Amino acid sequence: MSIETTPVDLASMADERAAGFGLEAPFYTSPEIYEQDLDLIFGQHWIFAVAEAEIPDPGDYVTVDLGPHSVIVVRDDDENVRAFRNVCRHRGSRLLESGCGSIGNIVCPYHQWTYRVDGSLIFAESQADTFEYDKFGLKPVNVRAVGGLVFLCLADEPPADFDEVSQLIEPYLKPYDLASAKIAHQTDIVEEGNWKLVMENNRECHHCDASHPELLTAYFPISRYEAEDVPPRQQQIFERYLEAQAELEKAREAIGFPNGDICQLEGKATGFQISHLPLDGAGASFGPDGQQLCAKLMGSIEDPRFGDLSLHMQPNSWFHFLGDHAVVFSVIPLAVDRTLVRTTWLVNPDAVEGVDYSVESLTSVWRATNDQDRVLVEGTQRGVTDPGYVPGPYSEVEGEVDAFVTWYVQRIQANA
């Protein structure tokens, strides 16, 4: 005898979420909610996929898997960024199995249907004379390159506010010339936790002083605090931060860099936040005491003491842009309790490994931080799975976590 189960009413559960509190356990543990996340969040919104630097030349490609969807991101012969479904139009074979590479044409391994990198079909064996090649090109996926960062949207009608967001972000990214940068290193780690826990963990530094000693050699743990919120034990750090912030403002003014942070993390389909924060110590990079890690600076940046331009994009990415390099992060759900975190380090295209930088030094802080975050996320996943879990209230310094969860709830309500 089969046992009937009651379908999850995700919209009703979202409506019942208490403002200022975390989510109920099923949001992190239910396979059914996970599948709806893939559909309603990752299937309906702009998702960060790759840095343009990962596909520098015509024919270079990266494949991106989002649940059951596989997408080819490729640079065509005119050097435009394209995206297509990784599915042959003949009998559905997966076209490209590798995560990245370079090709002249896209050739199906099954029956050798062949496509140009602009998606057009150019060879299909043993078809009738009436066969119309132009009707069987690869299915395109919405793709946008913004300041050297490539975003995808699987929906037929993607959120229209992305144009507005792009216009706001691009002036901040332009001086770094990310599209011309080169990849210094890339790592993938799998965290045994729900994708939302990964994002929530990233959206606050309340845990940083206890969990991220390497990061704190250069990164202020109280950058989001108001003066009245600073714990007494961190008062001296906060005063040092205010001095560094004043120096950063002078550096911005000297080169005409955009001034002012933008926070639109909730209330719209494409939520984001961009802020420019000083670094501690030397103020140049994530080296010991804020020391510079790459001798050649990014793009048109002239002063290595240019702090950390931080960009958060809902629902799956965050970025750190420094005077001497950039670090970009993407989060891809693999299962209800497994999440891929990909980290990519970018440097000036003329920087020479072993001369201008070392991969070990460049990546040391964030490799350690990623591993520490992995432990925190996995512990939280075990906790929310426990029958004793009850959502608690966010602290006064966890506003960005609350904003992420609020955005998620709003998007569920809008799309369910």
Descriptive overview:
This protein is α+β, with helices and mostly antiparallel strands and 416 residues long. The chain has two domains: 53-143, Rieske Iron-sulfur Protein, CATH 2.102.10.10; 161-415, Naphthalene 1,2-dioxygenase Alpha Subunit, Chain A, domain 1, CATH 3.90.380.10. Helix content is 26%, strand content 23%. The chain has nine helices and 17 strands. The strands form four sheets. Strands 11-17-16-15-14-13-12 form a seven-stranded antiparallel β-sheet, sandwiched between helices. A four-stranded antiparallel β-sheet has the order 4-3-2-5, with no helix packed on it. A hairpin with a 5-residue loop joins strand 7 (114-115) and strand 8 (121-123). Helix 5 crosses helix 8 (359-385). The longest helix has 27 residues, at 359-385.
